[in-house]
C-alpha cells in the first residue's frame, strides 16, 4: 500500500499500472547521523510509512520515483538507485486498511473510497524499492494533504513502520554500504569540499561502527577517488587538515 498520499483513491485505477508501486528510502546525513525521511499520516493508529506511490500509465518507473521524491523534498536532481523488488505472496494492505477504517470513522467518505477502489487497493502489490541520497541543507520538506508530519529520523531510531517498510530500509542500507565508495554516493551526503575526518564520520554513521583513523585514510587514498585540495585553516594552534573532494 502506497501511503504517501490518498489521491489514488480519487483516481481511476486505469490511470496507473496494475498492482505495482514504488517506495523510496530517502537518506540524509547531518550532525554525524544517517537519517531517513518518513511522513506520518494524520490518522488514529500511528501510521508511519516511507514515501511512495503508484506508477502512472504515462510515466516510466524511474520517472514515478523522481516525481514522488520531488513532491517530498522539493529537489529534482537526486541521486537515485533501484535496490530491490518486494513481492511476497501475502503482500497486501487489507489488514492495515481495515484497521484504519475502523479507527477513523468517515475515512472512506473523506477519501472517496468506493467498493471497487477498496478491492483495487487491497490486492497484492509488488513494490519497487528505490533509495535516494540528498543534501539535507537543500531539502524543503513538503507535507501532503493527509500528513500529520514529515521529518528525519536516525536510521537506528526509526518509528514502527507499516507493512514491510522496515525491511525496505534494511535492504536499502545494505545496498548503500556496498556502494559507499562510489563517487556519486559520497558526494550527495557531504559538502563539495570536506576533510578526511568528515569523510570518516560519514562512513561511521553509515556502517554504525568506528574506523581506525590511519587505516581509513590509507584505504580512501588507495581508492584513487579523492582529489586533495588546500588546507582548511581554522585559526587553531593544531595542524590544519587538508580538504578533499571526489575526483571529477
Round the Cα radius of gyration to an integer and report it.
21 Å
Strand content: 25-35%
Class of secondary structure makeup: alpha+beta
The name of the CATH superfamily of the largest domain reads: Nucleoside Triphosphate Pyrophosphohydrolase
CATH class of the largest domain: Alpha Beta
Mass-distribution shape = elongated
Number of strands: 9
- In DSSP terms (H or I, runs of 4 or more residues), the helix count works out at 8
- What is the CATH architecture descriptor of the largest domain? Alpha-Beta Complex
CATH-defined topology of the largest domain: Nucleoside Triphosphate Pyrophosphohydrolase
Provide a descriptive summary of the structure in words.
The chain has 248 residues and is of the alpha+beta class. It has two domains: 7-179, Nucleoside Triphosphate Pyrophosphohydrolase; 190-246, Winged helix-like DNA-binding domain superfamily/Winged helix DNA-binding domain (Arc Repressor Mutant, subunit A, Orthogonal Bundle), CATH 1.10.10. It contains eight helices and nine strands. It has helices at residues 61-73, 94-103, 107-110, 115-121, 165-179, 183-187, 196-207, 213-223; strands at 16-30, 33-41, 52-56, 79-86, 126-133, 147-154, 194-195, 226-231, 242-246. Strands 1, 2, 3, 4, 5 and 6 form a six-stranded mixed sheet that branches. A three-stranded antiparallel sheet has the order 7-9-8. It is elongated.
